Amino acid sequence: MHGYPSDHRSGAIIVVVGPSGAGKDSVIGFAAQHFASRAEIDFVRRVITRPSDAGGEDHESVSEGDFDARFEAGDFAVAWQAHGLKYGIPREALDRVRAGRILIANGSRGALAQFREVFPKVVVVNITASPQVLAKRLVARGRETEADILKRLQRQAPDILDDADVITIDNSGPLDIAGSRFVALVAELCGMTLAAS
Q1: I need a surface site. Which of 54, 91, 167, 183 has the fewest CB within 10 A?
Q2: What is the mean pLDDT of the chain?
């Protein structure tokens, strides 16, 4: 147990982070299926300057100009740039957390300070996988050879997320293992028993 409050009315956002290939979207999707009937648990649909048919998560696709205009208008609770794209968490997500909802969002390690500044309660889930698994998953995307990717992954400095609100889940094995750990974490945060979920 992590000592989360059992009263879900306090609201929180669970920010899922991790390297490319770790399976963040898959773990989030696993939880979305599990909690489909739970009204108090919701999933954030990000706004991204990426085509809607680009694969991966369900997101709102916008042009860079539209994103910038919405950013200037204060439409995002949190916004960041990565890999040549811009990402935004709609401001209404903050209203839902304040209303006592548990939100789950695909985030970015580089944006965690923003999340912690804006939202009243943040729990960070760091999805990881072994370098070999990351390499194989990235090879499946067809951009680099497995050897090249493995070398690049091994050169990266370790990303240390050791704050009290960070929980790491290894997704090197079958999805249902990491997915079930994530579901248990969300259930604990909501103060529910898995038998009732």
Answers
A1: 54
A2: 83
User: Does the pTM of the predicted model rise above 0.85?
Assistant: no
Chain position carrying tokens 């809607």: 52
The residues near 58 (Cβ < 8 Å, ≥ 6 apart) are: 45
